[in-house]
Amino acid sequence: MNIGTNFEISVGDTAYAIAELMNVDIQVETEDTHLRPDVSEVERLWCDNRKAADLISWQPLHAGLEGFRRGLAATIDWFAKPANRVGYKAHVYNV
Question: For the chain, what are the domain ranges?
Fold first, then answer.
């Protein structure tokens, strides 16, 4: 079952939202050439959560742009506390 918020935002807009919440100015740079093969590029990700809503009456707590921003703010607050980062492995890519 696909569970998400039925909300879509670009990577660039996500970076700008994080920067705004952290009160920093950034400039997102993009390149016309892709480092990965064209067939591996994901143009958009969208979670349609209707099945979860229909089957188990699930609704996201952080919905839409405002909910996304609340979730980002909570994540930023979590990372701002050194004790929370003790076991965090920024150098490891986890899927």
Answer: 1-28+41-95
Phi-psi region of 62 (alpha: psi -120 to 50; beta: other; left: phi over 0): beta
CA distances from 66 to 1, 22, 32, 33 (A): 25, 16, 31, 33
Q: Nearest 5°: CA angle at 89, between 61 and 14?
A: 45
Q: What's the CA gap between 52 and 59, in Å, rounded? A: 8
pTM, to two decimals: 0.71
DSSP, res 36: S
The helix/strand/coil state of 76 is helix
Tens-digit pLDDT profile for residues 19-53: 999 999 999 887 777 666 666 666 667 788 889 99
